[in-house]
């Protein structure tokens, strides 16, 4: 089955190495295909167009992408040092200059094979859509923000940048947004890359020193860059992320605290940090919060049992919910949360009526969505929304969010049903089928496929809206 995604008013169909872009003529200035035939000419930094066609008031561009290339969407969860290196090299290549600004820097439109081998898929010549209302600098800034963020997609930054920046609360991202020239943006990225390389180096060196007591080994940045490239493109980056993130991702930067406390926390000496905070008479909840931020989840729960919900929320926020299974606490609340992560469908169906925490129920419904059980996810969401028991006290924003998840479940169910119908018709027993029957069956399949595309487009837009595309 083809994968479908969207870039602005373009629909992108992906089937193995074939990428086909569909553009409704109402979004173009094309009156004759001759006006866009120059797009078949090669351009540095862009993939070649295999064919251009026009059918049913739509223009189609077809590309064949070598399997060694991946879209930057695949790299969105990489560690910052990797993402910054890719950003730097894309800025150096300056595809907007090459194309006179007539392209999109959507992550699904930018591909990489290595750090230095970055190519863009779609471009316009003025007759097809592009971000003509955005300057090149603004497009690059949105690209950096959308790619660097681990929380929000590029598409969401396009429509809601200022609000998302407030939620990110990231100094580098604020600086990117404030920059006033392309040269300054490149300088800013270079400096952040150097900072992340230094941080990565220090963490790797510390980890090496800890593992090999007394044995010191220097890792120069040039060598580190080679190691990163090799590991990234032979699939080793996930191991780097796992090793580094597990030890350093949750370090706290308590800028307003005394130097001694900052040093204790940042060095991982939470025992000393607790002593210092207790000596100051800090509230137990504040101390437990410090332990959560430092990644000392069992210590935090042991210190203040009421912090359990925050621990769960924190682990989901940083994408490490599987660490819930390692927690020592066996409270009823955490038992449910562990079972959600472990995900035994039959067990969870039986246990769902016993759950009385609205956040746990929401996480349960999203787990069912993640495992493609949309019917039961919809049931849970509707139970949570109706709240006949009066337990949940939902705000208007929470009800709105639930409605969006319910709509997603309904659309996913519709996609499944349409696919089942198409499959059944395609595999129908053709014995003694007349030509008239064949034409009728093919017409019915085409109608179902068109409906499927429209539902998938609606689903893509909804995923972007609720943040399930990141």
Can you summarize this structure?
This protein has 470 residues and is an alpha+beta fold. A five-stranded antiparallel sheet has the order 1-2-3-5-4, with helices on one face. The protein has a three-stranded antiparallel sheet with strand order 6-7-8, with helices on one face.
Tag the structure with descriptive keywords.
470 residues; alpha+beta; Phosphorylase Kinase, domain 1; Transferase(Phosphotransferase), domain 1; five-stranded antiparallel beta sheet; three-stranded antiparallel beta sheet; 55% helix; 8% strand
Structure commentary:
The chain folds into 4 domains: 62 residues, Phosphorylase Kinase, domain 1 (2-Layer Sandwich), CATH 3.30.200; 180 residues, Transferase(Phosphotransferase), domain 1; 92 residues, no CATH class; 128 residues, no CATH class. The longest helix has 32 residues. The chain is built from 19 helices and 8 strands. A 5-stranded antiparallel sheet has the order 1-2-3-5-4, covered by helices on one side. Strands 6-7-8 form a 3-stranded antiparallel sheet, covered by helices on one side. The chain is an alpha+beta fold and 470 residues long. A hairpin with a 2-residue loop joins strand 1 and strand 2. Helix 16 runs antiparallel to helix 17. The protein starts with a strand and ends with a helix. About 10% of the residues have low confidence.
């Amino acid at each position: 089955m083809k994968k479908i995604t969207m870039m602005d008013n373009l629909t992108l169909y992906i089937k193995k190495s074939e990428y086909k872009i569909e553009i409704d003529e109402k979004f173009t200035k094309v009156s004759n295909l001759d006006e866009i035939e120059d797009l078949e000419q090669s351009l540095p930094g862009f993939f070649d167009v295999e064919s251009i066609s026009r059918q049913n008031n739509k223009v189609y561009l077809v590309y064949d992408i070598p399997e060694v290339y991946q879209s930057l969407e695949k790299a969105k969860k990489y560690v910052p040092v990797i993402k910054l290196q890719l950003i730097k090299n894309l800025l150096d290549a300056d595809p907007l200059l090459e194309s006179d600004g007539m392209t999109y820097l959507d992550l699904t439109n930018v591909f990489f094979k290595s750090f230095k081998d970055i190519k863009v898929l779609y471009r316009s010549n003025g007759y097809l859509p592009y971000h003509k209302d955005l300057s090149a600098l603004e497009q690059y800034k949105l690209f950096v923000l959308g790619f660097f963020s681990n929380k929000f997609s590029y598409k969401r930054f396009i429509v809601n940048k200022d609000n998302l920046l407030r939620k990110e609360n990231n100094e580098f991202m604020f600086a990117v947004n404030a920059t006033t020239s392309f040269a300054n943006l490149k300088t800013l990225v270079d400096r952040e890359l150097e900072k992340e390389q230094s941080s990565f180096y220090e963490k790797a060196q510390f980890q090496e020193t800890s593992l090999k007591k007394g044995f010191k080994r220097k890792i120069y940045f040039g060598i580190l860059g080679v190691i990163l490239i090799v590991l990234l493109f032979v699939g080793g980056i996930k191991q780097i992320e796992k090793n580094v993130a597990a030890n350093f991702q949750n370090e706290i930067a308590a800028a307003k605290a005394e130097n001694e406390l900052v040093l204790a926390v940042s060095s991982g000496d939470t025992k000393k940090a607790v002593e210092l905070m207790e000596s100051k008479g800090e509230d137990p909840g504040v101390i437990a919060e410090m332990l959560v931020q430092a990644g000392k989840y069992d210590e935090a729960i042991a210190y203040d049992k009421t912090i359990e919900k925050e621990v769960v929320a924190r682990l989901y926020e940083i994408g490490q919910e599987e660490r819930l299974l390692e927690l020592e606490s066996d409270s009823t609340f955490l038992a449910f949360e562990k079972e959600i992560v472990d995900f035994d469908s039959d067990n969870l169906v039986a246990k769902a009526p016993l759950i009385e925490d609205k956040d746990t129920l929401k996480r349960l419904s999203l787990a069912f969505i993640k495992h493609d059980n949309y019917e039961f996810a919809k049931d849970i969401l509707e139970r949570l929304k109706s709240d006949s028991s009066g337990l949940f006290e939902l705000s208007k924003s929470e009800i709105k969010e639930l409605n969006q998840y319910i709509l997603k479940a309904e659309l996913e169910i519709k996609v499944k049903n349409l696919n089942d119908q198409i499959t059944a018709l395609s595999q129908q027993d053709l014995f003694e089928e007349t030509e008239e029957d064949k034409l009728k069956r093919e017409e019915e399949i085409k109608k179902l496929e068109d409906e499927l595309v429209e539902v998938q487009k609606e689903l893509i837009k909804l995923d972007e809206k609720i943040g399930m595309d990141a």
